[in-house]
Design goal:
three-stranded antiparallel β-sheet; 8 strands
Amino acid sequence: MASNGVLEDINQTAAYIPYQEEDTRADHDSYTLFPDRDLPNGYELRLEAYRAAWLKCLTRIQDLTRALHAPVVDRVSELVNKSYIDILPGLPYPELPVISVSTNGVSSSFLDEITSQLEGRDDDALFGDANSGHLVTHIFPSDCPNVSSAMKTLVTGFITKYERELGSGKRKPGNSLSTMDLNLLQAWFDALLRVRDSNESEVRLVIVLHDFEQFEPPVVQDLFEICSLAIPRLPLVFVLLLASPPSPSYIHMTYPRRILSLLQVRTCVFPWSNDVLHEILLKTFFDVDFEPELMIGPVLIDFLADFFERHSVSLDSLVSILQLAHMKHFEEPLTVFLHNERLGPSDAGNSVLGEPASFGFLEALFTRVRNARDANNHKEWLNTSIDDLLSTVRTARKTFRSRVRLLRVALQVILLIRAFMLSEGYKVEATLSELMCGAMRGRIQNVTKYLCTMVKKLRKVQINRLLPELRDFFASLPDKVRAAEKAISSQIDTAFSARDDEAHVVAGLLSEWLMAYFEERIVSLEDTPLWDIWYTGSTPFPTDLVNPSIRASILAGLLHPQEFSASVAANGRSTHNTEDDGEDEDDSLLHMPDTSILFQRYLESGKMINVYDWFESFAVVLEEQKRHHQRTQSRNLPERNGRPSTPRTPRTPRTPTRHSRGGKGRQWKEQDSDDPPEQQAEEETEENWRLEVQARFIRALHELDYVGFIRHTGRRADHVMRTVFDTPISE
């Protein structure tokens, strides 16, 4: 550990603090919200279960995201490959290819997929030849404050990225071209083609401009004009990444016609809508071919639909919300049974559950698996073996998985009939999110009744189109689901074989069979035992983690800092004397940090605050804190000669004044130089205390200034203005 002298020396620019490894035997009780009914190592077990469940869900979402990105990525690659080839005849001069890509709603991996495909780094590429693709460089707005910097970034971006292919030969500055000259890029490109043995018509120099709206338009105009003079000798292609909507076009609204006439602009738009959100949710949590470890509830689906309509339409936001939902779910101690009721090996799991520290967990588990009549006897679980409890958990898992699996099949049948009705021109008011939520709640009878009624009214031609779709769907089910759906599948086969008979009879029978099937399959998932282990249910989503109220959080932290730290609150209770001043612990300034003390005085002032008066009121509180600390220490000191030790009453420090300077200060020091050593040491201590108070005041003042609570005025240098007046949290 660095000494205090090194840390206090203003001449030292750095201090070395050795690393101290954390104690691996540290107690993790602080990580659980339910210590009375959690396992001793419940935190580690739930963390492991969370990682496995979230990894499976994330992998599925990433696969679906890549499938959604694929058409746009292929379109961009196609436009780059066809540049300088598919040219309109009769143009007076060659046009600079520019591809505008709208990144609104795409995932953060979208750019990596484009770059990988352009450079030929796809996994499916023949023999993994990395030298068969185009050359790609990236330019950011911070790299282009002017035209010179932009050209230098463009030229050196290609040279430094692919310098290993040409070797590390050192160029002589006197005989070299400028790094902002395109002739240098031309010479380097010709040499690279000779090394690669590639054809000039097959390789493109692709420049990706990130956050295109943040570039200075005059700089980009000059950049386009300069590059247009070097084509087609240099096959430059610009890819513009825009966050603005495609209509109205940012490029056509910002740049003049003189610049647009030099460009060949092509647009690629990611087709984001609520249908993309519904597709990801359906194929992740309601697909018959995929079973997630954790099933999300209707509350989370409603929040996702509302969030994407009101705030963000990004796939990254979807991933973040789902990850937070997984984290929130694994706060429950019973979620250790998500994957397996055996906590590790069989012997190890039973040994953990057999420890006395696990009795609270076992009692909570027993209360859940028994009905309310038997649960009144809280000690009955002592007569129940651990194997019986684990067997109950195993049975509950199989029951829940089976019910969810059949629910997915029934929902897919509803969606199939709904899509058929929409294609036939019928109106179905229920949205996809409402259908998903209603199916999990078991309250979708109005939709199923309406669909079955419409099936009953179908004509013969329509019945002949619907029955093959239903038959093919049940035939394509996995083997473990097909056996459970044998009854409805045979009924559909019967209707299919009798489709040439009277249409209304076949439609009536099919409607009755489907209605009975939906009533049997569409039930609430919360009716199964121990459902909250594998299902989020109606648990409210922690909205504050996604869209926090910043102003309320800052005010709450300044007014009630003890609520944000359990350790601070515990220290305050241990040192607080309830007999002093008769103040409540949370409202006492004696246990608050400096910034909170200064903010309390801030609320008691007017519109204009005198900084010197503010400092004096702050110093009074710190002085009282010091006396309180000394009194607390004196009570904890051992007795001397049978008498309790009494603290020495500190001298009241002089109030800092603005007139103690110059000759008077020196004369005062000369007069006090003859004082005894004890008095000089005490005065030195008081002087250090005054300096500490001033430093703490300045630090707290700067924190309030940084947050934005004060505003400086040029009229009165020793005053500041308040910016916040209404603080309902302080009530």
